[in-house]
Amino acid sequence: MIEFAQPLALWTGLLVGLPILAHLAYRRIAHKIPFSTLRFLRTSTIPRSGRKKPSDLMLLLLRVLFFGCLTLILADPYWQESSPVDLNPLGDSECLFWVDTTPSMTGWGGWEEAISTIQSKITEEKNVRYGLLASQGGSLVALPTGSAKEDLKSALKQLSSQSSAGSLQSILDQVPPLFSPKNTAKKIMVVSDFQKSSWQEVAGRFSALGIEVELLPVGHGDSPWQTRTGNRAIVDSRVASGGEDKIRIWAALRNWDDASVDLNVSLIAGGQARQTVLANLPPLGSTQIQFTLPSKDFAQATIRLDGEDAYARDNNQSLWVLPPLPRAFGFWHRSEEDPTDLLEQQFLQAAMESTGDGEWNTWVENKQRASDLKKDDSSKPLDFLMVLGLSGWFEDEGLAPVLSNYLNNGGKVLVTPPNDSHVRMNRALKDGEIIDFTFAGINRTAFRMEPYRIDVLEKNSRLHSVFSGDSVRDLYLTEIRQFITLNDPLGLDVPLRDRTGRPLVLVRSFPGGGKLVFSSFRMVPQWTDLPMRNSFLPLIAELCGVREREQKNGGVLRVDAGLSNGGQPSASLSSTYGLLQQGDQRIEVVHPLVESFPEVMDPEDVIDALAGSHLSSDSLQGANGDLVSEHPQSLWQWFALAAFLLLLLETMCSVPSFLNRQTPEVQNA
Question: Which of 22, 151, 321, 510 is deepest in the core (most CB within 10 A)?
Answer without folding.
Answer: 321
